[in-house]
TrEMBL record:
The keyword Isomerase does not apply. InterPro entries: MFS_trans_sf. This is MFS transporter. The chain crosses the membrane at residues 12-34, 54-71, 83-99, 105-124, 145-167, 173-195, 207-228, 240-260, 280-304, 316-334, 341-362, 374-393, 413-431, 494-511. The lineage of its organism: Bacteria, Pseudomonadati, Bacteroidota, Flavobacteriia, Flavobacteriales. PANTHER family: MAJOR FACILITATOR SUPERFAMILY MULTIDRUG TRANSPORTER MFSC. It is a multi-pass membrane protein. The keyword Transmembrane applies. It is found in: Membrane. It comes from the Bacteria. It comes from Flavobacterium suzhouense. Keywords: Membrane, Transmembrane, Transmembrane helix, Transport.
Length: 529
């Protein structure tokens, strides 16, 4: 690193403005990741694809982001700092415009991969520059809080902006707005950055592009299996089998290349540290439990029949909770409260949210009924996120810190992907089960079913429908009611199970040392070892 890194910014730029510019430009990654997934239903209908396809496109972007982190530092050290950022943000604005006029799904995926690269390239350099503005331990906590506050809080704001644009303007204006955001970043960099370098120039040679390709293939093929497995009936599909084979083969080649290569892009020694393994698993569990929030949004839209703008507005309660949780997490970290207490508290609050929401899966609720659990969910997320990042990064020696950071990103990626897969499969299986069970009680031969059908038919006849049409509408209404009730029952069971699992995790984290001692005592008594 060049010693006088303060020369990256022009002399007249005050410190507070530097921090603002860096945090603002880091939101670029969140715009790239969230603009199409902020309104999945509308985005999928525009591109004439299924919601699973749009979820896969999100994973393509995030997976490419993860793979690019392995080679990003070499590119940053080669190009001049200011030019590096200007090119990235300018390309991002062009990619947004192109994607706005793309209705071909394959081309859309290619553009999403490009967005993943453009999302990864400035993320760590911007964070490095942000770190240079602070030196103390508490300041490091503040930097991580700012960094990941942008990650957590950007998505709800993007969702609300997207819904407003879609309600008042055409779809194209959403991508235009995203492109303008990138150009604002270009303007801020032009105004505040000098032409000085942050690192000494390092030539672009001996970059392990083969490892980049191998890990990218493994990520994309593994994601394909998780996202489309249920839809394609898992291993009855040749595509799923082929994707799994390519995933395992490319991952095996990647691991061998890192273990035996001269210049590995990832050092697997990080997994020899127990705290890193724990942090990795906690990230996966955390993101799986966060995936249930999409079930709440789906319920609002399909069962409670809320408008998209209202659903988007509900996100602000979650944002409020995120803010409270991150402030509490920062205070706890500054007070040096042990991580296991913070984790236990966070997962306990997440369990409260799940168990509370179990009682809200009814045909209709008021907005006031969901405010408290939504805020609690936000507090739990804010309370867990930064401490888990710091716990994972600090669990290894400083020379391995970049690899631990990549491991944390991998945990977040696979947690969100596996979470989507679990929720999708659980909902499908449980809905089928409940539809079958409920249909046994609504057979036309039963007295209750006959009475209900007669009542509904009479209601439709009273509205002016012919007898035959009224009967068909009555049957259709009962079928819809059975489907809706099955959906709600499935959600109740999913939230109940996850709530109990999170309680168990919270207790395990809190009493981990005591449990370990109890196991050792038990082993000594039974086996004498």
């Amino acid at each position: 690193m060049i010693k006088d890194n303060a020369g990256i910014f022009k002399s007249w730029v005050p410190g507070w403005l530097i921090v603002f510019v860096l945090v603002f430009c880091m939101l670029h990654s969140m715009v790239l990741l969230g603009v199409y997934t902020s309104n999945i239903t509308y985005s999928a209908s525009f591109l004439d694809i299924e919601p699973e396809d749009l979820q896969f496109s999100l994973c393509v972007t995030y997976g490419t982001f993860l793979a690019t982190l392995l080679v990003e530092s070499r590119l940053f050290k080669y190009f001049p700092t200011k030019s590096y950022f200007l090119v990235i943000y300018s390309l991002a604005s062009l990619v947004f415009v192109f994607s706005g006029y793309t209705e071909n799904y394959i081309l859309f995926l290619v553009l999403r991969m490009v967005e993943g690269v453009l999302m990864a390239l400035p993320w760590l350099p911007m964070r490095q520059l942000l770190f240079t503005r602070f030196t103390s331990r508490n300041a490091t906590i503040v930097v991580f809080s700012l960094n990941y506050a942008a990650l957590l809080l950007a998505s709800p704001f993007i969702m609300n902006i997207a819904v407003w644009l879609l309600d008042n303007y055409d779809w194209k204006y959403m991508v235009y707005g995203s492109a303008v955001f990138q150009l604002l970043c270009v303007g801020l960099i032009l105004v505040t950055f000098t032409n000085n370098r942050f690192h000494r120039k390092l030539p672009l040679y001996q970059i392990d592009w083969a490892s980049f390709v191998l890990v990218l293939v493994a990520i994309l093929c593994g994601t394909f299996v998780f996202i489309y497995g249920e839809k394609k009936y898992w291993f009855d599909s040749g595509q799923i089998v082929a994707a799994l084979v390519f995933c395992l083969l490319s991952m095996a080649l990647f691991v061998m290349r890192q273990l035996w290569g001269k210049r590995p892009v990832f050092d697997f020694k990080v997994f020899s540290y127990a705290n890193l393994r724990i942090g990795f698993l906690l990230f996966i569990l955390f993101y799986i439990s966060r995936a249930t929030l999409n079930i709440c949004h789906s319920t609002m839209l399909t069962v409670w029949n809320w408008e998209p703008a209202r659903v988007a507005g509900v996100q602000y309660f979650n944002v409020l909770g995120n803010g409270i949780g991150m402030v509490l997490a920062g205070l706890f970290l500054m007070k040096k409260i042990p991580h296991r207490y913070i984790f236990s508290m966070g997962f306990a609050l997440m369990a409260v949210y799940h168990l509370w929401f179990t009682f809200l899966f009814v045909p209709d609720v008021a907005l006031a009924d969901i405010v408290v659990p939504y805020v609690i969910q936000g507090i739990s997320v804010g309370l867990l996120f930064v401490p888990m990042v710091l716990f994972t990064v600090s669990s290894v020696p400083s020379e391995l810190a970049p690899y631990s950071g990549t491991t944390g990103v991998a945990g977040r990626f696979w947690g969100s992907t596996i979470g989507f897969c679990i929720m999708q499969n659980a909902q499908v299986y449980l809905m089928r089960f409940h539809v079958f069970q409920l249909n046994r009680n609504v057979l036309p031969e039963t007295a209750q079913a006959q009475e209900r059908i007669s009542q509904l038919t009479a209601n439709f006849v009273a509205k002016g429908y012919a007898q035959d049409d009224a009967y068909r509408l009555a049957i259709k209404s009962i079928t819809a009611a059975v489907s809706k009730q099955s959906f709600l029952l499935a959600n109740m069971e999913i939230f109940t199970v996850i709530g109990y699992v999170l309680i168990a995790v919270s207790v395990l984290l809190l009493y981990n040392r005591h449990l370990r001692m109890a196991v050792d005592i038990f082993k000594n008594k039974v086996w004498g070892s």
